[in-house]
Please model this.
Amino acid sequence: MAHLHNLGFPRIGASRELKFALESYWKGTLSSDQLKEQARALRARHWNTQARLDWVPVGDFSLYDHVLDMSVTLGNLPERVRTPDGDVLDHYFRAARGRSVTTATHAGCCEGVAAGEMTKWFDTNYHYIVPEFNATTDFSLNPSVLIEQVQEAKASGLPVKPVLIGPITYLWLGKARDGSHRLDLLPRLLPVYSQLLDLLDQHGVEWVQIDEPVLVTELSREWLVALESAYQTLKRTRVNILLATYFGTLQDNLRTVCQLPVDGVHIDAINARDEVVRLIDWLPAYKVVSLGVVNGRNVWKTDLCKTLDWLEPIAGRLGNRLWLAPSCSLLHVPVSLDNETQLDVEVCSWMAFAEQKLDELSVLKTALNEGRHAVADVLANNQAALLSRRTSTRVHKPAVSQALDAITTAMGQRSSPYQERIPVQRSRLNLPEYPTTTIGSFPQTPEIRSLRQHLRKGEIEQADYVKKIQQEIAHCVEVQEDLEIDVFVHGEAERNDMVEYFGEQLEGYVFSQHGWVQSYGSRCVKPPILFGDVSRPKAMTVDWITYAQSLTSRPMKGMLTGPVTLLNWSFVRDDLPRAVCCQQLALAIRDEVLDLEKAGVAIIQIDEAALREGLPLRKTQWQDYLDWATHAFRLTANGVRDDTQIHTHMCYSEFNDIMAAIASMDADVITIETSRSDMELLDAFEHFNYPNEIGPGVYDIHSPNLPGEAQIIHLMQRAAERIPAERLWVNPDCGLKTRQWSEVIPALRNLVAAAKTLRSQGLKAGTMSFRTVDLRSSTN
Model:
């Protein structure tokens, strides 16, 4: 008999209840007790949704990040976030977000507590707070939050299965700031894990899920030996351990996993189906085999009949040892389709969100345990939906295929190399040393969000909406004029999201109303759903950018999202290779680039924030991805003239091992996130002669801390140790949409002041006088 469990459930709530509770708490309008009570109510609702399962995950819920939760449980918060008078929750959010402790002035420095570094969770769009280590790091058990949740769930009569990040993955995810070896900490870490497992056993827990997703990466022998040692230690506990892997294949690590002294193994059967038979063959006959048979990272329906064809012989062989689950935690998909009253009916019939994926698992369990006849109607409806999708003329469009066939090598190449382009661009733009700019967006105020909502509801006319958005753009221009920023942006008041905004105007996409997923903390995104061939019916940004340029003589950047990021931050169709989908997107955005250039826009920024997160988890597969991803960017960007400057932006990525690929993109300027790492991310540029210009971020926009002039100068001086000063720009880490004007203006004032100081210090050979070229009527 097959059993059901889940690796994790979306924590934000179907209506983003957690987001709004957190932000109210941070604003001081919700007490800590009220926040905790709302969190308890949300957990109870999610557990009730999963009550049909044989084992319900506990500990997958988090107020901010499950990796940070593990750091709290292990007593490993940085010393800087701990205060004698602060409680655990206060320390927790200090680590997550940082903390300002003084009021910033226009020229002053705002001292505060630095937030923990944040980076991507494997190859997803979820961000985690990086654990911090040094040679003297010690660990101590702090289990109160997890034990409280176990008690809550057990009080509801649920069969609980606590979820922990495994010790090897936890060390692998972290950073040792002093250069010490993380694995040297394992002997200190394992006793705390053992204490925690023993405590869970005392609270009546039978099974614990220990996640070791690091096993789908290429591990050295040293790490594999550490893995074996760790589980030899943990086997002494009485609680049953289910070792969970996901996001990819185990490959050479499969044999090691099968030999570990654990009681069961979960494998991602969406990505590693070919390894399932070997897993069953190699595992001892008493161990549980958990198969992730429903895709936990995409929104398309499972082919239930095809899955049953594959599963039925396995079920016959394993009997009670077979557990079924999603491939990974459902954190990465929206909560439910039930509230999607306006989603395209046909496309909606092809999809499954988290709750519907649990429904699919229930159908599979019933079919395996009772026979397909018990769910015949459900299976018939499933097959009808799949057939509808395969045969829909909305999915496959001959004109798009013809455009792909017409792509030439020359379309991905600039007319001249960078060394010849840059003098032409500098002549046109005539920017000062250390030019200042922002990444694209300015604060999305409640008034702006309300304005878009009124438009969607038909409560205002399009002409009135355009007029009001133009007023917001004019305000952004006025602010930048006052601050004396060198290269302007229009502020993106018209945009709800950097991906959704473009997807709404491209054919081949649909959009949910409530399909939110967590990116980090309270930050949620609503990924577009790419269901068919992509094309651009009309220009998407030209009117807004040309209007903004008409208000100023300073250069105004055209702002676009690149094809790789559009792909990686969407729910992508699974009936076509991702590389082909990306080429379709590249052609659509290329048309927009060329239209902006025709309109006289001198600088066009094509954001590729998600380039790195699309990397396969195994380096042996990287080059194929990087080849088609960078080609897609070049196809998008490289149809322009030499005097048009192409920028790109990448955030929360480490570049050391993909520098050649980034250089091959041939963007004239790249802006990157570096402030949280104190410019450590620029180490990649010490050993690679990156030829083009770089804007290392100096303002961490994900933290309420405001950078002072001295801090920015310090960061730029560190950057100049690695990058020739004449090729440096000064800019924030990322867009400013999530911040308040009261934060943004003083921070940018300090940024501009720092750039002026750097110019006056003469850190770069030669001088360049500042003269503005009026670009308002430049159409070329």
Remarks:
- The chain has 26 helices and 24 strands.
- The longest helix spans residues 462-483.
- The two ends are 72 Å apart (CA to CA).
- The chain has a mean pLDDT of 92.
